[in-house]
Amino acid sequence: MNSPHLQVALDIQEAGRAVPIAQEAVAGGADWIEAGTPLIKSAGMDAVRRLREAFPDNEIIADMKIADTGTIEVEMAAKAGASIVCVLADADDAVIQDAVRAARLYGVRLMADLINTGNPAERSRELETLGIDIINAHVGIDQQMIGKSSLDTLSAIIDEVTIPVAVAGGLDARSAAQAVAAGAAIVIVGGNIVRSNDVTGSAAQIRAAINDPSVVPPKKQSKDEEIREIFLQVSAPNVTDAMHRTGAMQRVISICGRVRMAGPAVTVQTFGGDWAKPVESIDVAKEGEVIVINNSGDSSVSPWGELATLSAMNRKVAGIVIDGPVRDVDDIREYGFPVFATGVVPNAGEPKGFGEIGAGITCCSQTVRPGDWIVGDESGVVVVPRERAYEVARRALEVNKTERRIREEIRRGATLAAVTELLKWEKK
For residue 62, which of 187, 50, 405 has the smallest C-alpha distance? Predict the structure, then answer.
């Protein structure tokens, strides 16, 4: 194992899609092929058999995540055609030992997955002593969503063992390059290859980074910058999907059509078109924030118009959301600025000064607190609790990746029902 291997993890549910996606990944430079845990749970050992038949000369990995009955599960995978079988690193030693004996009997290797292991360095040393062949520094997807990194696990174990070390968990070209530079012998990539609309191109990009880590420069970005960047890549539907179909505002529409916004909320409570607090909030808002206004259900008088919009643009506000109507829409549409409202009226109220800036409000049936992230496009507006913004952004990106891949397969002639095996997964 003198050069790093690129292992593509087929973490999908549909066995019929596995081989074509794997073929595209191999064309881009992947050399190890993994039947991921979701695929094995969905299709069983048939998925491993299909991969072995299609790729007789490649390493086929069965990500069984064995936690018990080591012999039975290793035997199943080996007889189906796997050459490497995955066990959970924190399985009991008796399970590990039995799995090792079975692996020696059936001529396969064992990879131990460190997911959720309390002390990775100590356990890695123990696993090498027990006979494990490869250690996988893996951070699971739910942990990735809250910011945990497999590269941290890799750095904790790389000098603790003499057997090859793999790394997995949300890797892209940049983090794959970092992993190889840190000593990883196997780089495992799932979503950033499998969910790509150009699987071959994505695999080739990561292969190039593995071959020469210097081709990918390090990325310096704050967490808020990363959140904003992701939210501007994905759609409002992606975001609400990531939150299990919650967070969407009701009745609100984009006044300027196809615009996109994302930023933390500056909240405004006003009454009956009183535009004092909405206008004053422009001077309170920071660059990149979204002003969110509750007009207290009054649909006959607008608290916002063209002059306020121009002022907000000068302050580099990211967008406006109004539970109420807006006016001067012809001018606002010329600006192409993200303004979302529940209607349009020409009437304006008086600047009486009623209301408040910076308090929790209800806007379009959603609770909004100062600092909650607001994401909007032509499909609508979604409120993301500030404490979950990073996690939800990362999950929305995974939703977006999945959709991009399915879209590509539909473009090639499939249908949505066929790609997703809809009949198979209908609730019984």
Answer: 50
pLDDT digits (tens, 9 = 90+) for 52-92: 999 999 999 999 999 999 999 999 999 999 999 999 999 99
Select the CATH number that applies to the domain covering 227-390 from these four: 2.60.40.1930, 3.40.50.720, 3.50.30.40, 3.40.50.300.
3.50.30.40
Arch. (CATH architecture) of 5-220:
Alpha-Beta Barrel (3.20)
Report CA 306 to chain centroid distance, whole Å.
37
pLDDT band at 1 (very low <50, low <70, confident <90, very high): very low
User: Six-digit token pair at 310?
Assistant: 């121009």
pTM of the complete model: 0.84
Please answer whether residues 136 and 111 qualify as being in contact, where contact means their C-beta atoms are separated by less than 8 angstroms: yes
Q: Taking the CA atoms of the chain, what radius of gyration do you get in angstroms?
A: 26
DSSP string, 267-324: EEE--TT--HHHHHHHHHPPTT-EEEEE-TT--SSBS--HHHHHHHHHTT--EEEEEE
